[in-house]
């Protein structure tokens, strides 16, 4: 029988609470629960009884999130959506504080546990996790994201890197700390952190070492503590490669890297994100980043048709820009979404052929398999 220590029991509890919240974001609800909550709020305020009159209110709320409300009806529903959002945000902040406090208690009670790097990772993610405000207000959906690290998590990621450099989770920490450093204008330090990626021991080292011994030892060998989080640290490899390419290929001595620093400070979830991107181009004409910003502006378009038009425009203006593999990959995805499988395949094939070693080629291969599943090629 395998014995489980107190530290492992506590860690499993933390990991379960972490659940499906990944470092890449998620959608935990289709919005139906938000519709119900806003409907109850409207009904309760009108009659003082949440059990009656809910049907018509629910229809109004659904039309609001579907974008089909008339102006007067939208004005009626909007305050209730905002009130529900504020309540949710307050509750969410408390939950996040509870998560980080639980991690701190573990670190205090079990400072030598083999699960310490895992708990540091969970704590960092808890501090970085955010709600997409615009998705909530527009669609009633709860999108969560961790792709724009919080300054609050800096010390946690630094501790993970410096104290547990051989943990595979240290790579996830390096990517996040690199983003924070770049935002502060320390581009050289960000590049250094990203170039250190992959220098730690593989997660399977311990298991493989035991596999050289007797068969019984192999059966009884514990998996590495980080094994259950494998998808998390493997997922950062592509992110790191893309960030390193962006930083190294867009240094701009003319502007002392100002455009690059401003780009790193642009929050994709901010309602003024597209405006902030355009301002960089306006402030710094002919910046090295013009093609990269063009891609980001294209991807911010909710309409697939408009997204394709803008990406094609970027491709035409910057046929040799460093953003070319990204443009082709995103064009392939947009055409796939629009149902044009021939053009989707053409763009994915071009990425793979012209940039076989890039992270975008790996992504293109994966997306190309979807084209084939859809009947778009052999």
Please outline the helices and strands:
Layout: H1 6-18, H2 32-47, H3 54-66, H4 71-109, H5 116-128, E1 130-131, H6 133-139, E2 144-145, H7 154-163, H8 169-183, H9 187-195, H10 205-211, H11 215-220, H12 230-234, H13 236-249, H14 258-265, H15 273-283, H16 290-299, H17 304-317, H18 324-338, H19 341-354, H20 359-373
Antiparallel strand pairs: 1-2
Structure commentary:
The protein contains 20 helices and 2 strands. By secondary structure, the chain is mainly α. Among the domains are: 116 residues, no CATH class; 85 residues, Tetratricopeptide repeat domain (Serine Threonine Protein Phosphatase 5, Tetratricopeptide repeat), CATH 1.25.40.10. Helix 5 packs parallel to helix 8, helix 15 packs antiparallel against helix 16 and helix 18 runs antiparallel to helix 19. The longest helix has 39 residues. The chain is globular and about 60 Å long.
